[in-house]
Amino acid sequence: MMSIMQARIGRERQRYQDHLRLVAGCIPFKFEKIVDGHTRNPQSRLLVLMISSPNRDDLVFPKGGWENDETVEEAACREALEEAGVRGILGENHIGEWEFRSKSKQNNCSLEGGCRGYMFPLQVTEELESWPEQALHDKKWLTPKDAFKLCRYDWMREALTKFLTSLPEDKMNEIREELVEISIMAAAKERSILSSDWVGKTSVMQHLEGSCNKVTVQA
Predict the structure, then answer these.
(1) Is the pLDDT reported for residue 46 higher than 50?
(2) CA dist., res. 99 & res. 167, Å (int)
(3) Per-residue DSSP letters for 163-184?
(4) Residue 5 phi/psi, 5° resolution?
(5) Span between the terminal Cα atoms of the chain, in Å
(6) Coil, helix or strand for 63?
(7) The pTM is what?
(8) Span 107-119, pLDDT tens digits
(9) Bridge-partner residues for 151, per DSSP?
(10) Would you say 95 and 162 are in contact if contact means Cβ atoms under 8 Å apart?
(11) Are strands 20-34 and 114-127 parallel, antiparallel or unpaired?
């Protein structure tokens, strides 16, 4: 079935606050069942959805401008549909907010290009066969560990980490090994870059601290 929806273009309705462009996005996710013939209870694994950009190997989560005729929640859902072709259940509260520079202004010292982004969890319930920006973006379901490795932006890694550590305890048990590996990767990354290059206001490690201790090992 062909999608008749068209992606919004232009910035005539773009919201700004404190000279920052307001952006909304989401981390689409699903729990995939793993069939194991040796156990009565089916296991599941968490996957997150990321998209590519032309001529790049790294990946991002769907996001885009929050416009003045929609709520931030509506903007996040719209971007997920336009860029990744998914619909789902949006979390009631956003994961957090981050200030960063747009990709075209990364090396610009002026105020131009500054953004404030709001990220939400989106539990995917529908994947479309076609979507407005299908020609611009490939999409890929990944384990959290692989998503952390391939993510383009540090602030998006922090958003992913906050999302993972906000999961219910029973779900965190399913990803306990990945949480440990992600915490190790995060620590290594923090040691390897200057603090001025770390865009997020709060360290990834602060969100991981204690998370592995919250996970209970099931017999």
Answers:
(1) yes
(2) 24
(3) HHHTS-HHHHHHTHHHHHHHHH
(4) -75, 145
(5) 46
(6) strand
(7) 0.79
(8) 554 456 899 999 9
(9) 59
(10) yes
(11) parallel
